[in-house]
Design brief:
Elements: H1 2-26, H2 36-43, E1 45-49, E2 53-60, E3 66-77, E4 82-90, E5 98-113, E6 121-135, H3 138-147, E7 160-161, E8 179-187, E9 190-192, E10 217-219
Antiparallel strand pairs: 1-3, 1-10, 2-3, 3-4, 4-5, 5-6, 6-7, 6-8, 8-9, 9-10
């Protein structure tokens, strides 16, 4: 009986090793490991959303559930770790009612490997060159006029630079430079960033750096 049991254990171990090898061989997440320099090189160029994306916001509905917001992204990674990002926010899930355009320019700091997947890298996005906000809907312009100070009157289609200025709608204080503790992971020609925390917290500290992957962007050049 003991001999049969021992043989069964050995056969089970062999089977498990075979399964593990097959999963590693066939799983793209296991075979896509890249260094920081390789990730930087592969990231150069232009990327954009595949479709309208959804995020949890940090505001709540009357029933206590988080309000969603919808957006698209266009991202360009340049040499010298420079980046440009354009985000369009929408009032609806199909992207028919644009609310605002946000244009950010700055640089990225690479912080080493992220454990979410082999080849993923921790990246900090720092908006220290430009942070433009353009209202695209009259109702949103009226909200900005009500809750911001020190700006020209907000008008649909006209951008204003909020870099280093107090901007209550985005939770920015005077002199504060917007920074996010995020990640980048490349796989099969797609670029993944971190998924938003489900409780609406931003990536404003190392502790809040994402631990899951967001819907990816595709390369456009």
């Amino acid at each position: 009986m003991y001999r049969k049991f021992k043989i069964a254990i050995v056969l089970l171990a062999i089977a498990m090793n075979s399964i593990s090898f097959a999963q590693t061989k066939n799983n793209p997440l296991k075979s896509n490991t890249m260094t920081i320099d390789q990730t930087k090189q592969e990231s150069l160029g232009k990327w954009e959303s595949l479709a309208i994306e959804i995020r949890p916001s940090n505001t709540k509905n009357a029933d206590g559930t988080l309000k969603p917001f919808y957006l698209t992204r266009k991202f360009t990674f340049l040499s010298n770790d420079k980046f440009e990002l354009t985000v369009i926010n929408f009032a609806d899930s199909y992207g028919k009612v644009p609310l605002a355009k946000i244009e950010i320019k700055g640089h990225m700091e690479w912080r080493g490997e992220h454990p979410i997947a082999p080849g993923a890298q921790k990246v900090d996005f720092i908006a220290d060159e430009a942070y433009l906000v353009t209202p695209l809907l009259q109702g949103f312009a009226e909200v900005l006029n009500q809750y911001t100070k020190g700006f020209n009157s907000w008008t649909v289609g006209e951008p204003q630079n909020i870099l280093g200025k107090a901007f209550a709608p985005f939770g920015l204080a005077e002199g504060q430079i917007f920074k996010e503790y995020d990640l980048i992971y490349l796989n099969h020609g797609l670029m993944f960033w971190g998924a938003r925390n489900i409780d609406g917290r931003g990536f404003d500290t190392e502790e809040n750096r994402p631990t899951n992957l967001q819907i990816p962007m595709g390369r456009t050049n």
